[in-house]
Task: structure prediction
Amino acid sequence: MVKTLLKLEELAALLLAVYLFSTLDLSWWWFIGLFFVPDIGMLGYLVGPQVGAWCYNIFHLKSLGVALYLIGILMEFEYLQLAGIILFAHAAFDRIIGYGLKYERGFKFTHLGEIGN
Result:
């Protein structure tokens, strides 16, 4: 029951991000093309699990997405709003499919539980 509620909450967050993107004066290709860019944080795992977890988590913090979006509004800078929306949407999507923030033990150890279990 709790897992279902969490997934519904993340789905609502993803839909909010889609709505916020629709308010920008940008082509939908921007959203589609940039949606998986936050996964660049996985490159940190090439250095090791601690660096990997830190890099991955930075690119998957929904609060960072919210902050970038709000700063973009304040500065009237649409591309900063876009960056915030993409980070927020991608993090919500990852959590829907079970990929949470990473622990330093390794990629499959997340705040949502172990990936694959």
About this structure: The first helix runs from residue 2 to 22.
